[in-house]
Write a structure and sequence with these properties.
By secondary structure, the chain is of the alpha/beta class. The protein has helices spanning 54-60, 145-148, 151-161, 181-193, 204-211, 228-235, 271-279, 292-304, 323-332; strands spanning 6-12, 25-32, 41-50, 76-84, 96-99, 102-103, 115-116, 128-132, 136-138, 173-177, 196-201, 218-221, 255-258, 283-286, 318-319, 340-342. The protein starts with 5 loop residues before the first strand and ends with a strand. Residues 1-20 are annotated as: Disordered.
Length: 345
């Protein structure tokens, strides 16, 4: 670690913003690394950070969890272990790791309170950080820093939305709404598992670019296609998938994964509509990222199948000094995949 005692970070300007008076982010240069580590502490040097829409939501006051006052933002990073406490057994100096998003969420059915890094506890938009070893996972060896930085939130959310790719039926299709990080990560997972992905967007340009990745990818422009149900039936060979209405869902055994909050938490489905899931033997799942165990399962799959995540990295990465520009790009929505901030190596 070469006697590093202070480092640089970005912080939010306060605790509560609004759409009319959003918070901003500002850079600091005098963050202090602890001189003494607890026995299971791990010091990491952060190499890449990927942004999620939650970063904007925290600035404009629409994020559903109370956030830390002047906290360090961002939850997703890829990093290198540079120092360890006396009792650390899971990692060694030089290992490549990601922090888990939910501090305390180690197994799928852990039912206690957890903290979400980058919101109600310090995030990863900084040069160095200290985490307990139990809150870190090893990065698949074949992934770059930039690819690996997409794993903690977008990656794990996509993985759990697809049921961890367990028992994938032959000829399965998945309808992926939007072209953001979770949908694009899910698209990559679908292609790796033989699931036909159908991705939606209001931009023909985005759809054309994404369809170049594989002939298996189908696209649907939800603004220019008026009859969504007929088009979905055509794209799925008559099986159907959910778009606007539960009646669109495949006839038997489909899964609907509810992800994100871009349009808030209001829903148009009446209780009677949801009961129609029963007749289709369908499953409705709420997805809140995932646990460390699920993260490790995903990483094992990615490594065993040598799944690369480069299709997520369409934009050039931003430098750490240009973090504000990265936020502006994220807020614009004029991209697909992930926005990456790359720190100096």
């Amino acid at each position: 670690m070469a006697n590093v005692s202070t480092y640089s970070a970005w912080r939010r300007s306060g605790k509560k913003g609004s759409k009319d008076h959003p918070l901003s982010i500002y850079r600091t240069y005098d963050e202090i690394l602890p001189k003494n580590l607890d026995p299971t502490d791990v010091v990491i040097k952060i190499h890449a950070v990927s942004l999620n829409y939650r970063e904007i939501a925290m600035l404009i006051g629409t994020y559903p969890v109370e956030i830390e006052d002047r906290g360090v933002p961002c939850s997703d990073a890829a990093a290198e272990v540079v120092a360890t406490g006396s009792a650390v057994s899971r990692f060694a100096v030089g290992d490549r790791v990601c922090p888990i998003t939910g501090i305390g969420k180690l197994e799928p059915f852990d039912d206690g309170m957890s903290q979400a890094i980058g919101s109600n506890c310090p995030g990863v938009l900084r040069e160095y950080a200290v985490f307990d070893q139990k809150h870190l996972v090893a990065i698949p060896a074949h992934l770059s820093w930039e690819e690996a930085s997409t794993l903690p939130c977008a990656g794990l959310t996509a993985w759990n939305s697809l049921d961890g790719l367990k028992n994938v039926p032959k000829g399965a299709s998945a309808l992926l709404q939007g072209t953001g990080g979770v949908s694009m990560f899910a698209l990559i997972l679908c292609l790796s598992a033989g699931i036909r992905p159908i991705i939606t967007s209001s931009s023909d340009e985005k759809l054309a670019a994404i369809k170049k990745l594989s002939p298996e990818i189908q696209g649907l422009n939800y603004k220019t296609v008026s009859d969504h149900k007929t088009e979905i039936l055509r794209l799925t060979g008559g099986k159907g998938s959910l778009m606007d209405d539960i009646s669109f869902l495949c006839e038997r055994g489909g899964t609907v994964s509810m992800v994100g909050f871009l349009n808030g938490f209001d829903a148009d489905w009446a209780p009677g509509d949801i009961m129609r899931l029963m007749g289709k033997a369908a499953k409705l799942k709420g997805i809140a990222v995932g646990s460390r165990l699920e993260f490790e399962d995903m990483n094992r799959y990615l490594e065993e199948n040598e799944v690369h995540l480069s299709p997520l990295l369409v934009d050039q990465p931003f430098t750490f000094a240009k973090a504000q520009d990265a936020y502006d790009r994220l807020e614009s929505g004029k991209f697909h995949g992930k926005i990456i901030i790359k720190l100096d190596s």
